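Each field is set out underneath.
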Amino acid sequence: MRKAHAAGLMALGIAITVSATAAVAAPRVRLPAKLLGGWCLMRFDPGDDYGSVYTREDCTKQGNTADYIELKPNGYDGRDKSCKTVSSSVKILHKRSSKYFNAPGFSDQYTVRYRCRREGATRYETKTITLEKGVLLFDDPSRPIRPTAKQLSEFLGTWIRVDATDAACRRDDWKGTAQYENPYLINVTASAVETLYGDCKISSAWPRNWERTTVDVELSCSGEGYTWNSSELWDVQQLGDRKVFVQTELRTSNRRDDAGKRYDNSQSGKPTTLYLECK
């Protein structure tokens, strides 16, 4: 039973890793028809998960053209500006077999580079475009997203690696002596990942879905005489009465020792690690 359970967890981790990292990049990828047309700004908050959020409401009927955009096959029009598509690519978020792939309220994520004209001046801008539950997420991918408890709500707390000899644990274990004795435990807060051997400070977190169960995370780590930066994909799934945290290391950079000497940036171990929730 234990082997079957472990095999199921590993299969889950592999499936998530493969689907999450799959992407197709090609010049001038066309936006699907369900993204085209007029959109009205519903909310903008630079510190929010998604930044600019638009709905199908027609702002022009209310005389509010400032918050109105129209997406076209070869560009988009906004307030006092017209933008033409220079290049575009698509990141696959939904499998063809999933209920979301052809659903009218969902889309994959499109990254588009535009050349815009406004008041006689030309400038370039890049936008990520995604449809989630019928609303349009239209944002600048370079905008830094500071980590918050809201963005990481599904991952906060204490977790134990699935390969631990005894996977039984409690949320309060991290407050006791276990944090100094158990190498299989980690504790996730809104600002850091804490382990027995070192800590990683979370510099940014970008949710890929409204439920915040899949998040792109950037970290600055230190431990055992080294410092490094890590780009990771976090995913959480429900397995019986416990959640499973799938942590996938996409790449590492700037690995140095305490003296500042650079080292190879190859992955420190297995790229995907699975954890069970400590309740």
User: Anything to note?
Assistant: Residues 2-21 form the longest helix (20 residues). Helices lie at 2-21, 178-181.
